[in-house]
Every structure is written in structure tokens, then in C-alpha cells.
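Below is how a single chain appears once it has passed through the pipeline. First comes the sequence as given, then the structure the pipeline wrote out for it. We keep one example in the README because the format questions we get most often are answered faster by looking than by reading.
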Amino acid sequence: MKPEDFELFSGIVKQRSGLILTPDKAYLLESRLPPVARKYSFKTIDELAHAVRTKRDESMMNQITEAMTTNESFFFRDQRPFDQFRKIFLPQFLQSRATKKHIRIWSAASSSGQEAYSIAMICAEEAAALQGWKIDIVGTDISNEMVERSKEGVYSQFEVQRGLPVTMLVKYFDQNGDKWQIKPALRQMVQFRSMNLLLDFGPIGVFDIIYCRNVLIYFDSPTKARVLSALAAVTAPDGVLFLGGAETVLGITEKYKPMENERGVYRLAGAPGTMARAAG
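Resulting structure:
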């Protein structure tokens, strides 16, 4: 790939998604952009680059961005954040929200929907405790293709074998040939919509629990700080933020502080149970 074409494509991706592509990642562009080129009847990525420069077609640039955003996900990924939700935070909010009986949960950058549906399965398992409660589960992703796929809730045999207990597969999925689809009742528990974390969230409301895991690792420090600030603005005063195992707020923002004794979980600065200052 020509250096100038790399700069063109990586610049589009960074501006629209925050994803940083360094020159050693040029192979990702070379492997993921040919289908985009073919969609517009171009034979090569060079032709695609020329069209982008001359037309600045919005749809074309969106397709390039979607092709480059990572869509790796699986059910109950890393397990610990889901155990924390079920054993610690769900009981806490059942107590603190006992008057209004309403809990809001956001799976940010939800990819193909496995994280949001994993949360929904936990809530379904706790149906007795949640009787009479309103549980909003919202999944958002920059990719329209991923949002539509999440709404359908159809997964391959390989995908349902990654992290999903067999008992839950049988209970919450219908088999159709070599595919498995989330049962309608569970699909109705989750709302999926397109959203770019770099842009104004709009009227999304305030959330008690936010999962934004394995997203910040793709951003530079200023972009991480901007996203965390935006997340803080829609976090309830006693709400919690889950980040990925390789992510942290330390040295990036003062909006959140790590929770004591709960790795990977953060609360707004000044909220009870947060560390008074950054450790080491």
C-alpha cells in the first residue's frame, strides 16, 4: 500500500472512530478494504483511495470505517465482570433503587451483541428477584451492520461455544440448522442502536451500569479522556463503569476512580467506595 493511501485511510478511520492505525498495521487495511472496493466496483484499493480523494463520498467513508472497527466479542467474555454484576452490583441496585424499581445498563461498543445478551441472560436468571422491575439494557455500536446483526441475535456454532454455558444455550436459544438464534423474549430485553462514542450521545439518558470494555485500548490518550468524560456525564452518581482488563482511568481522567477491592470497576470521583488517590 502506498504511504499516502495509508495516511488517507488511517486518517478517515481515526477521525470517525478514534481507532489509531500505526504503519505496522497497514496489513489490516490491505486485508479488510478489498471487500469495500469491490462493493463500489473498484478492482484495487488504489482505485478506492482515488475515489475517496475525488468524491469524498460519505457512504464510502462510513464503509471504510466499519470495515476497520474491531468486532471481536463472545458470550460472558472474561467472566469476572458478569460475576461482579450478578453477585455485587445487581443486589446493590435492587436495594438502592427499591423505590423506583428501574435499572439502566449500557453495553457501549457492543459489537455483535454477545455482551448485552449475556447481561440479559443474567437478568432472566434473576427473574424472581426482578419481578415488578424495569430493566433497560441498551447496546450501541458504531457499525450499522453489527447493530442489525445484534437485533437478529443469530450466532454460529463456533460463537455459541465461546464462553456460553450449555444450560443457557438450551434455555435461551433456538437452533436453526447450524445456527442458533436468541429466543424472542430475551431479544426483547435489549435495545440496540447505532452510536459513535466520539460524538454527542444525544438523549440517551443516565445509566446505573456501563460496560465499555476493550474499547479504550484502541484510542490515543486525548481520545480516551474525551470518551471517559462523556461516559461520566451519563453515569448515575452511584453508578459503575466496567473497563477491560488492560484498561484504566489512572493518568487519563479525574472523572472516575477505581473501586476498592473490585478490579476493573470504576465509580465517579467522590462516590463512596472509590480509592482516594491513584495507587503506585
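Residues 153 and 182 are 5 Å apart (CA to CA).

See the next section for the split statistics.
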